[in-house]
Specification:
The protein contains 7 helices and no strands.
Length: 142
């Protein structure tokens, strides 16, 4: 009985807008169909931040994306939160290794990015996850 109803259910689908030509500006198009360089940059960021493999390189790519006008639709709170979490992880790793110079650098980066988000200078605004990460940072190290 359950298998029969499962097989007879309507298949959900999403209707995507038609892509516009390259010479036409459309924010919805950039959100649904980001350019190849933007997609590649996001992939590099995800790969570099995985297990804090290369946070400095991810930060460089992220800074390039933040300056690009075409990346505004894909730079959301999730991406910013990945960096805030990576900064916290890097600081924690440095403290565990006994180096007290580097953690201060990561804390500065973290608070600077967070304050920039809160002030409205960034393309993303803080969400509940952002505040949770920053609260965790504050509780752990302030």
């Amino acid at each position: 009985e359950n298998l029969g109803t499962f097989l007879q259910r309507q298949t959900p689908y999403t209707i995507l807008p038609t892509p516009v030509p390259d010479d036409v500006e459309d924010p919805l198009n950039d959100l649904v169909f980001p350019s190849t360089p933007v997609q590649e940059s996001l992939s590099v960021i995800d790969a570099c931040l995985h297990n804090c493999y290369d946070v400095k390189r991810a930060q460089y790519v992220f800074d390039q994306l933040r300056q690009s006008p075409s990346s505004g639709s894909v730079l959301n709170s999730r991406v910013y939160n990945l960096f805030l979490e990576a900064y916290l992880d890097m600081a924690t790793a440095e403290v565990q290794q006994g180096d007290m110079g580097e953690p201060a650098k990561w804390f500065k980066e973290s608070w600077s990015l967070f304050e920039s988000m809160e002030s409205g200078q960034e393309k993303a605004t803080p969400n509940a996850g952002t505040y949770a990460i920053m609260l965790k940072t504050w509780l752990r190290y302030v």
